Task: inverse folding
């Protein structure tokens, strides 16, 4: 059994979370396995993927930290945790999801864009804040937030790519979420293309 501290440590160590949005459970499994083969060790399986529980089951024995994304309510959060999710991500802060995650000792990473939202998330026990969509922000935003809130750890998601990932990490991001790039690579170059792109992301984090 993994403790919350261990999960947070793994997220901060791996640096890259692959956000998997499959048109089918089978596609999501393939995308996830490609990301893992490319070196990514944290996967966020979104609940917009049809029959997402099948994806959790298919990846149960992979050497990867599985989380759930696009979680909109506490019922879905509990379903994901029982399916094996080790962290819960939502596009916005939901005060009803936080207690469920706290009850099971699972990190809750809510999407926030304002200081007010971040403070509410912190007060509800969130250890990492998902800056979403990060396309609306510059990496320097993290420093601006850490001025009044030095203990806030931020994971930008949406708009992170190979060109700016190092800028985000250098600015203080605890990790980054990548999504559309993987889908595009898979659609264009198949499984091998997604593996190669994942490998490039991990190489960027090591530079």
Result:
């Amino acid at each position: 059994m993994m403790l919350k501290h261990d999960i947070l440590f793994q997220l901060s160590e791996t640096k890259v979370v692959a956000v998997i949005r499959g048109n089918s459970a089978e596609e999501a499994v393939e995308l996830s396995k490609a990301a893992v083969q490319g070196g990514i060790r944290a996967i966020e399986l979104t609940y917009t993927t049809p029959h997402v529980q099948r994806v959790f089951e298919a990846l149960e024995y992979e050497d990867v930290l599985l989380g759930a994304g696009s979680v909109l309510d506490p019922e879905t959060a509990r379903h994901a945790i029982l399916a094996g999710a080790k962290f819960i991500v939502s596009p916005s802060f939901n005060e009803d999801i936080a207690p469920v995650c706290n009850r099971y000792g699972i990190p809750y990473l809510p999407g926030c864009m304002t200081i007010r939202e971040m403070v509410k998330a912190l007060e509800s026990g969130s250890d990492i804040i998902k800056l979403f969509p990060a396309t609306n922000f510059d990496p320097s935003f993290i420093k601006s937030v850490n001025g009044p809130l030095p203990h806030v750890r931020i994971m930008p998601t949406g708009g992170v790519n190979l060109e700016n990932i190092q800028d985000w990490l250098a600015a203080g991001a605890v990790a980054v979420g990548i999504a559309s790039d993987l889908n595009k690579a898979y659609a264009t170059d198949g499984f091998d293309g997604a593996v190669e792109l994942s490998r490039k992301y991990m190489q960027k984090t090591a530079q």
